[in-house]
């Protein structure tokens, strides 16, 4: 297989960085990662950027929030009674909550008051443009 299609298994090195150049995630110093196109390993916007790339090709893509982790949504910020927390809290701490369906939902402690705690349920990278840098190592037909 010479180029990436919607039927590909792709092996690649990747790096995600913020607008200021800070690296969020990278596997360039490790073994490359593999995924099957459409398996949910990568966000759809990241996958579509890889279409028609070939083995050995390197590229960088600036992914706006709507193609990455979405816009920051104010309705995902919740105020909860301080009494609901039985642990020591610190701002920036990630706490696991259960949603209505009992699914795990991580929230970041944004603010701690005497009576209230503000929890941000947005993805930590929501509202951020990211640079997605890739090097394609191998392309195969997905089984």
TrEMBL record:
Domain of life: Bacteria
Matches recorded under PROSITE patterns: FKBP_PPIASE
EC number of the protein: 5.2.1.8
Catalyzed reaction equations: [protein]-peptidylproline (omega=180) = [protein]-peptidylproline (omega=0)
Keywords: Isomerase, Rotamase
GO molecular function, one term: peptidyl-prolyl cis-trans isomerase activity
Residue ranges of domain PPIase FKBP-type in the record: 7-81
Xref: Pfam families: FKBP_C
Family named by the database record: Belongs to the FKBP-type PPIase family.
UniProt xrefs under PANTHER family: FKBP-TYPE 16 KDA PEPTIDYL-PROLYL CIS-TRANS ISOMERASE (PTHR47861:SF4), FKBP-TYPE PEPTIDYL-PROLYL CIS-TRANS ISOMERASE SLYD (PTHR47861)
Name the UniProt record assigns to this protein: Peptidyl-prolyl cis-trans isomerase
Source organism of the structure: Marinomonas rhizomae
Phylogenetic placement of the source organism: Bacteria, Pseudomonadati, Pseudomonadota, Gammaproteobacteria, Oceanospirillales
């Amino acid at each position: 297989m010479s180029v990436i299609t919607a039927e590909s298994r792709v092996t690649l090195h990747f790096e995600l960085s913020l607008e200021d150049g800070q690296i969020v995630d990278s596997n360039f110093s490790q073994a490359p990662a593999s995924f099957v196109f459409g398996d949910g390993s990568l966000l759809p916007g990241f996958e579509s950027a890889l279409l028609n790339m070939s083995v050995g090709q390197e590229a960088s893509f600036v992914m706006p929030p709507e193609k990455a982790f979405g816009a920051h949504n104010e309705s995902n910020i919740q105020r909860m009674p301080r009494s609901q927390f039985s642990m020591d809290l610190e701002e920036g701490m990630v706490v696991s909550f259960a949603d209505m369906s009992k699914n795990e939902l991580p929230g970041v402690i944004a603010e701690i008051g005497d009576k209230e705690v503000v929890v941000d349920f947005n993805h930590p990278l929501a509202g951020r443009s990211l640079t997605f840098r890739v090097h394609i190592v191998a392309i195969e037909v997905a089984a």
